Amino acid sequence: MSPMTTGFWVKGHGQRSLSVSSAVLARTHVSYEVKDNVAVVRINDPTSKVNTLSRHMQAEMVEVMNEIWGNAAVKSAVLISRKPGCFIAGADINMIQACKTAEEVTSLSQEGQKIFDQVEKSPIPIVAAINGSCLGGGLEFAIACQYRIATKSKKTILGTPEVMLGLLPGAGGTQRLPKMVGLPAAFDMMLTGKNIRPDKAKKMGLVHQLVDPLGPGLKSPEERTIEYLEEVAVDFAKGLAGRKVTVEKKKGLVQKIQDFVMGLPPVRKQIYKTVHSKVMKQSKGLYPAPLKIIECIQTGIEKGNAAGYLTESQNFGKLAMTSESRALIGLYHGQVTCKKNHFGKPERDVKKLAVLGAGLMGAGIAQVTIDKGVATILKDTTEEGLARGHQQVYKGLNDKTKKKSLTTFERDGIMSLLSGQLDYRDFENADMVIEAVFEDLSIKHKVVKEVEAVIPPHCIFATNTSALPIKDIAAASKRPEKVIGMHYFSPVDKMQLLEIITTNKTSKDTTASAVAVGLKQGKVIIVVGDGPGFYTTRCLAPMLAEAVRALQEGVGPKKLDSLTTGFGFPVGAATLADEVGIDVAAHVAEDLGKAFGTRFGGGNVEVLKMMVQKGFKGRKSGKGCYVYGAKSKEKKVNSGAEDILKSFKLTAPPAVSADEDIQYRLVSRFVNEAVLCLQEGILPDPVQGDIGAVFGLGFPPCLGGPFRFVDSHGADKLVQKMKRFEEAYGNQFTPCQLLLDHAKDSSKRFHK
Amino acid sequence: MSAPSKKTLAKPGVKNIVLVDGVRTPFLQSGTTYADLMPHDLARAALQGLLNRTGLPKDAVDYIVYGTVIQEVKTSNVAREAALGAGFSDKTPAHTVTMACISSNQAMTTAVGLIAAGQCDAVVAGGVEFMSDVPIRHSRKMRKTMLSLNKAKTLGARLSLLGSIRLAHLSPELPAVAEFSTAETMGHSADRLAAAFGVSRLEQDEFALRSHTLAKKAQDGGMLSDVISFKVPGRDIVSKDNGIRPATMEQLAKLKPAFIKPHGTVTAANSSFLTDGASAVLIMSEEKALAMGYKPKAYLRDFVYVSQDPKDQLLLGPTYATPKVLEKSGLTLNDIDVFEFHEAFAGQIMANLKAMESDWFAQTYMGRKTKVGAPPMEKFNTWGGSLSLGHPFAATGCRLVTTVAHRLQKEGGQYGLVAACAAGGQGHAMVIEAYPQ
């Protein structure tokens, strides 16, 4: 029987019309050999570190599978990747982005659906042997196979992360997953996009067998582990073909009950409703993808396969055309860029780091450093401070052992890299010092001098300040070329962003070294120029000033929070002020106010100062805009803060005080300052501006960052709004020149 | 037999230290005839057996070092308890060492050290393991409550503590043959090791069968002369190991994997089994032995301890230790006439043999230029091994050394090599030289 008459594969994609023989010669991504009646199909994209389901990969896969299905001697097949850390990482995003219309994307989805449909209906059993990331389209491929075996490697993760790109699993995932893992687990996977580790995957029924990663043998552990996985998979494939292994496992009582309950339409209806309202509550309706995912799953289950697959492909097409998806994909690409060192390889590696100040920031920096195997000194001036910091690091790591992402021995090994001390012992061996002491220029100067007296000449001095200009700190240094700013965000072990600030004296090697350290710590890095508030703090300050004004005008903290979260900020403005610390906010507002004048005005700084005076320093002091520590879930507004606001009451101008106006007053000041930073050269490019705003300050991810927001919203419309606000309030809303340029010429865009 | 590259390994200025003799109790599967004893009872039997065998005056012993792995908490210094019970002078100090499966090797090398340093002339070393009874503890929560109970002063305080006991407090803690650092059981690690070196199930079963067949032959041929008879209180006299069971390949092939299921290769039949047993050796300076009229069995020469990654190289001790100790002695693998390696698992032995045969492994992981080479099978564990004779963890080391001495005597060889792996990713090897006959 020829492959054509078995009629299995859809013909490859239109663009490929090579004859079979030349295609065989040209095959670069997919190869196979037949071992004992088992076809072992190996995938390896030679052009990339990861395998993606590109057009090329798909076309070769179609050819190979057709050959296998046409070969009567082949009784079963194994699908495996030759890359050590990656099975298939997903569909090729560029392929989706290249599409101009929803219909084009829909047809891409339908082609994928057809391929996997044929895999699912394969006349011979196919075993997916998974080592490394098995995500998105990769997982959809795997779950279309008859059997799945995964290694327990730390690199092996399974998941459907499409939702994080504003998309959905568009190659049958929304239809197959609920049947495989049950409705609740399928919703959880597809709506959160979370990675699932092998042990969990086995429990969920996502994979059938687990294989242990191997240590050194006669080959490298990575190489041998893949071989071993293949050997085990081939055995199972033979077993499946000979009916010695069965796919269906016996269902336990719990599973049977769950299946029964899920079989009841009213129960399912209730689940859809609950999930829908949960999504609406969390996304504020700003993200279309989760809702479309629910729709696809619901359609498939309630109306059958044909309707389900159709809805999936159509929704996939629609989502790909949304501004939200473009924004999220933009962030994905930006993040990839910001995870590279663009300053070259530093002359020497930082093997010993010293952190000054064991406060929240200092301890956090120490934690993410030792976590990556770099010996770290944590120095404080008092024993209490040191003990607190040490405990913070320990707790951070210990929490990971509770989640089982770390063993207690790994934790202890990591902790052994930390040296807590009160003196400058061993600083002569430090390659980099990061100071995280109190934000006061004279203290910073004192620290620079003390440290420079003990460190070796090559040692870099980095300062973790959030607003003080680096050049002012460097003024006390004997070697300003070794001074750099490394602005971490709190909590350091959770926040991905690192803002690196260079002065005009900072050497390129110093920058390269700081970026290398940040990357090692797992950070997404933006490198910006020096100035008061650099980039991130400078964007946040005007927005917070506007928030204070809104509060003074009688918008309560809760209302303010709901307006900001309703715009897409993950944390409301009032809560954010509490998290940052009212004292820090007051400090920054005053400093930046002095530096930038009335543009940074709006709310009265005295409000913040008065709050600090009364001890309302935010979450850390138990009171800020809100009262903390109470057991009830509902946060209570701090009446003391309300009293202060009343005493500073302003009258809200009705023309600019509608809810939407308040939202745009906050956002436009943020965005205008960001654009001004680009105009002034503080920011090197819009990509880093977007990444910094989203990852450091929580700018709405669905908008993709301030620059993408200007592009998608329209600079002209934004300028119109700002002019209206300017009339009411003055120069805080004067659009900067670059923004005006973009408003004048709609062809000007920050992102291509 | 190849011509030895050196006549003797004696070094100027270094004392010659000799093995006078060695004995062991029969090694029994746990839960059989020894089931009602305590560890020091078994140790006592071995020590008394050594005294009987050598006719050693008790007060001639300067020191006793004894190994054990799973400690009976009541006799944490089991060396002292056993020595007292075996009738040694209460003036002879004794201490206990522990180093997993090489505990009695550690006891012997400690003895060697004491003699070499001129502090002692005659030392008894040995080891005991008793798997029929292991300490099973209350849970940590329960222990905490019970300890607080001791301190509670009033009835009310005691009652409230008792009232705080929940069902969860009552679940006991069982000791596991698992690494504390990785929580992986040794069998699981052995299975992964076998897979890493591509050792097949068939190879493992064949090696296990070889071990049992050779052990049976040795037992029947009366080679296992280190075994002493032991009248177990309340039971019969035991005079033979009871775990030697040559089966057929078909029977072995039927067994399901014991650790990695369903596709693993390590089974109950190709692993060493839980064993009760004790061993003891008499080690002396050559001068002292001769002065006391003994005819020593062998010289104990160079030895090494090694350690490596406890996760992925847990059981590769012999691979690391062998080339190191050979180099120290100035010997090559060809100079060795008798090999006695501890057989923890057939897969572990096969993996070690493959590692020793691999230039790539030697270069990549051991920092050596070339492989050391695998021992020829005709010289390797020819009287059986831990897989068949049994493996009471802390008693095995003395059995290996005594067996080398006996084999050298029987076969007329010059040099023997002992090597063993141990939990924690550690290992040991020792070169033994025949005493001129």
Description of the molecule:
Chain A is α/β, with parallel strands linked by helices. In chain A, strands 12-11-10-13-14-15-16-17 form an eight-stranded mixed beta sheet, with helices on both faces. Chain A has a six-stranded mixed beta sheet with strand order 1-2-3-5-7-9, sandwiched between helices. In chain A, α16 links the parallel β10 and β11 (375-379). The longest helix of chain A is centred in the last third of the chain and has 22 residues, at 659-680. The relative contact order of chain A is 0.06. Chain B starts with 16 loop residues before the first strand and ends with a strand. Chain B is α+β, with helices and mostly antiparallel strands and 437 residues long. In chain B, the strands form two sheets. In chain B, strands 1, 2, 3, 4, 5, 8, 9, 10, 11 and 12 form a ten-stranded mixed beta sheet that branches. Chain B is globular and about 80 Å long. Chain B: Residues 17-287 form the Thiolase N-terminal domain. Chain B: One of its GO terms (biological process) is fatty acid beta-oxidation. Chain B: Keywords: Acetylation, Acyltransferase, Endoplasmic reticulum, Fatty acid metabolism, Lipid metabolism, Membrane, Mitochondrion, Mitochondrion inner membrane, Mitochondrion outer membrane, Transferase, Transit peptide.
Helix content of chain A: 40-55%
* Beginning-to-end CA distance, first to last residue of chain B: 18 Å
Q: Spans of chain B with pLDDT under 50 lasting ≥5 residues?
A: none
| Rg result of chain A | 29 Å
| Number of DSSP strand runs of chain B | 12
Count of distinct strands of chain A: 19
Distance between the amino and carboxyl termini of chain A: 50 Å
Beta-strand content estimate of chain B: 15-25%
Which two protein chains have the largest interface (Cβ within 8 Å of the partner's Cβ), and how many residues from each?
A: A-B, 18 and 27 residues
Secondary-structure-derived class of chain B: alpha+beta
- Strand arrangement across the biggest beta sheet of chain A: 12-11-10-13-14-15-16-17
The coarse overall form of chain A would be globular
Largest sheet of chain B: 10 strands, mixed
- Low-confidence stretches of chain A are 1-24
Beta-strand content bin of chain A: 5-15%
Structural class of chain A: alpha/beta
Count every helix of chain B, treating DSSP H or I runs of 4 or more residues as helices.
Answer: 14
How is the main sheet of chain A built?
8 strands, mixed
Shape of chain B: globular
Gyration radius from CA atoms of chain B, angstroms: 22 Å
